[in-house]
Amino acid sequence: MNAREALRAGAREIGANKFRSALSFTAVSVGVASLLYTLAQTRGMQETLHKNLDLMGPGRLTIVSRRNYVSKGISPGLTRADATALRRELPDLYMVEPRVSFSLRLVYDRRVIEGVNIAGTNAEFRRRDWVYATRGRFLNEWDVENRARVVVMVQPAGWDKMPFWAKYWDLEDAYGAFAKRRDILGQRVRIQNSIFTVVGVLTPPPRDKDPRWDSWGTPQLIVPITAFQSSFPRYEGNPDVVDKIEIDTGSEKSLSARRKQIEAILKRRHRGEDDFEIKDQREEIESEMENMRKYVAAGIALGVVALLAGGIGIMNVTLATIFARVREIGIRRAIGAGREDILAQFLLEAALLGLGGGVAGVVLGLSGIQWLSGLSGSRDLAQVTWLHCAEVIALAALVSAAFALIPAYRASRLDPVEALKAE
Asked: Sign of torsion, CA 337 340 346 350?
């Protein structure tokens, strides 16, 4: 029997045992679809994380306050003066940006909006993370030095391709509706009890183009940090305290050395108190990658379990087929078929079943990825190539053939005389 005849015989046998074949076929399909979806998600998340790292810059550090009651009487905490000292003692740093933020009340033309996220920063903010389209201007050094009561308004981010869920759950807040419908460039607004002039309007990129933006904590209004601290003092006795200081060393090679220098300067200024923490963006990315690996392992385990279930089903189908075809095996052996021919036929039938399940699994997986991508607004479908599809189909066929190997081998070892006596 040549390969074409073996394929035809295998297809006929699969069709003759529809129910048993369908169970194995379904299990293999689910396993392949799970593996394909996990692969797409993995590549999508990896691309997002690496894109975030590229956009933030290779030499990025974040200094955050870690103040407690013990250090309160010894160290003033993380302050704007610390940022000034870092800029003075390490002048070659690409960026030193102190930042403080709070949710405050915005009033314009009798319209009151509560809970607007307002950030106080300096002009160095635009040296990194600057992806905005600008109308008007941004803050400058004069604004910071003179505590100018000027404000830059940040428009809410839109979508390049709006996902399905955003039509129903991505509801505009009061600030978003106000910012989209009112052009207040050059106008005066009241923040809490202080009057500020709007000197610029920033428009961020679409959310699905740059995943950093329009997330929780993104500022909606930006003012000079000096004006923020003088107008909205958050800490009694020391309005100079900041939430964090963003640092960019300008180079990944200098990151480790600069981190040690920054730590030494701050410890000296804080009288030896360890009331701050320096976070490396690379470590944050690595932590997220580690969490992603756990998710990937769970997805792969699910797909492997489904494939194994399909393989066990195929083994059972092969055993049942052999039991029903013992006499046929005896006849084939009697007319000259060798043991390798019997082995090859049953392995080919199992591989054919796995191949069909693999193709169906790819169709199911791609359809599921496309549907879920439409719901979430992600681009996971673009992460799947034809090579990945071919790999999972080949894996399904290989697993199916492997599970059929033992029963197929037993069939090839049947004695022809005993097989011909079978009823």
From this structure: negative
